[in-house]
Structure formats: structure tokens, C-alpha cells
Amino acid sequence: MSDFFINVFSKTKRGGRVVGPAAPNPSTGMHPASSAGRGPGRIAVAGRIGLLVILCGILEPGAAAEVSLSHQDALRVGRKIWQNECGGTISGLTSWNAGEDFASLGIGHFIWYPAGRAGPFEESFPQLLRYLKTRGAKLPAVLLPNDAHCPWSSRAQFLAAQASPEMKSLRRFLAETIDLQTDFLVLRLGEALPKMLAAAPTSERFSVEPQFNRVAQSAQGCYALIDYVNFKGEGVLATERYQGQGWGLLQVLAGMSGSGEGGAATREFADSAAAVLKERVANSPPARHESRWLRGWLSRVATYRSF
After folding, report:
1. What is each CA distance from 298 to 1, 37, 258, in whole angstroms?
2. How far lies 83's CA from each of 65, 113, 127, 198, in Å?
3. Residue of 255, 246, 238 whose CA lies nearest to 283
4. Mean pLDDT over each residue of the chain, to the nearest integer
5. What pLDDT, on a 0 to 100 scale, did the predictor assign at position 214?
6. Which of 13, 37, 204, 306 has the highest Cβ tally under 10 A?
7. E-strand spans in the chain?
């Protein structure tokens, strides 16, 4: 049996009763993850988010991995990722970096390719849009009727449209769904573990899962895992390799061997992430000039040491 079963729950007790997601906001039609107010600088996430991933056929029968974040910690994770990717700004929610063939949107700078262009990196913005629609978010006209491809075909066209009504509506939509984007990032982490275990060589499979759980035991570790998998992916795609070497979460966990918990786990994770990123740059095609990004990447993973 090789199926994966993922049980995601986000109910919390309030005043002695159990409640689920809040009712839709009448002005936006969206289902916020909690009833807390939100705006461009606020993120509201479910009171308690738990991700229980039961892995059949890879782990021993009955084995499970659980990632749980409190409301306050989820808020902090969302804010830190927004800061990492966008400088915590509204304008940063719609970006297209120099030297890249795709737009980077939302607090996680989710990748969105133009029609007819397929790159080596996993495209995550359409996944986010599907999730937002399941949560009741109403997409702006610029994303309709076809939300599968970026409507701007080049970086120059994208930058020229920064003050256009379409870009403003997209930016407003992304600012209004920051809480749901945070939920999506947490859910993505829950889905990462079974993907990594399925892709890992047999020699690494039974060490990756304990290292994941070791890091995930603290809020600081959850931040590191959520941020890195959003930053550099799970590390399972054959297209995300330079000279046969990946740079995702799988490779970072495979580079760990310690057993200490708490700060010891996150420090080792940060060290392993830095080593993986340095190896990526060393293996990258010279034409990409990836060394220009390394300093910023290393500064980012250094934030995993404190939360």
C-alpha cells in the first residue's frame, strides 16, 4: 500500500465550545481563518492549526508526523515569511525579479509562469489560487477567466503595468488574503513530508523523517521548515537539480545527523541549509550568476536560529 492520508484540522475551543472557520466576510465573500481583524499589516490564522500526516507504505504501521502551531506562532510565521520575501510591504506582493522568467506573488513569492513558458522550478501560484477559491476567496478580474497563466508575458511588461488597474486589483486581493496565504504555507509543509519520503533514497528515508520531527518540535523549527520549503521547495523534482544535486528541504534534512532538540535542532538545520545553498551556487550554470543572491539567501536561513 503506497497511499498517503492527510488529515488537516483547524478547530479550536472558545468559551467551552469547539468552533471551525469563521463565517464569510460579507464584503469580500471570503472565509477568514479566524474572526480576528485583518488589514495590509495584519494576519489572522486559525486558533490552532494541526497537521497530521499518516504515511502508509513508507513508515512503519501506525507511524505519524504532526506539526502544530498556536495562533500567535502562526501569526509570527506569516509575518516573518512576508518580511523575508516582500520586505513586509504591500508593493512587494507583486514582484518579478531580474534574471527570472516568472512573476513572484503573495507573501511567499509564489511562482507564476506566463503562458507557453515552463521553467525548472515548481509553479506554486496556481496551487495557491485553487486553495484560496476553496476557502471562498473571490478572484479579481485579472485572474479570470483563465487563472492558469500569468497574463504578463515578460518582466518588462509586468513592470510597466505596476500602476495599472489590473495590477492594483491583484495587489489588493493579495493583501486581503494574507491570512489565507499563511494557512496555505502551513498546509504545504504538511504535504512536504510524504513527498520527501517517497523521493528519498532508501539509505536516507529513515533518517529524514526523524530529523523533520526533531526540527518541528518547536515553533522556531516550524518557522524554519515552513519558510525553507516555500523558499526552495521540497527537493523532490528532477528539474530542480544542478549537476545532479538538489537544494530543497529534503537535501537539508539529509545533511543533518544530530539528535539535540530545540535550539540545537534549528541551529543544525540553519547550518545544513547554508551548506546546501552554497553547493547550489557552486553547481549552478555560470550564465545565471546565482552568486549575486547567495548573501541574501544565507542571511535568510540565519533567521532560523531565532524566532
Report:
1. 40, 34, 21
2. 28, 23, 22, 32
3. 246
4. 79
5. 94
6. 204
7. 4-9, 12-14, 17-19, 48-55, 64-70, 94-95, 103-105, 110-112
- Provide the grid cell at 151: 497574463
- In tens, the pLDDT along 248-260 reads 999 999 999 999 9
pLDDT at 31 exceeding the cut of 90: no
Element (H, E) at 252: helix 249-254
Query: In terms of Cα–Cα distance, which of 73, 106, 72, 103 is closest to 89?
Result: 106
Q: Pick the closest to residue 12 from 4, 25, 21 (CA basis).
A: 21
| Number of helical (H) and strand (E) elements in the chain, helices listed first | 10, 8
Pairing between β-strand 4-9 and β-strand 12-14 as defined by DSSP bridges: unpaired
Residue positions counted in the chain: 307
Of 90 and 42, more confident: 90
Q: What is the pTM of this model?
A: 0.72
Vertex 221: Cα angle to 6 and 303 (nearest 5): 130
What pLDDT digit, counting tens, does each position of 280-304 carry? 999 999 999 999 999 999 999 999 9
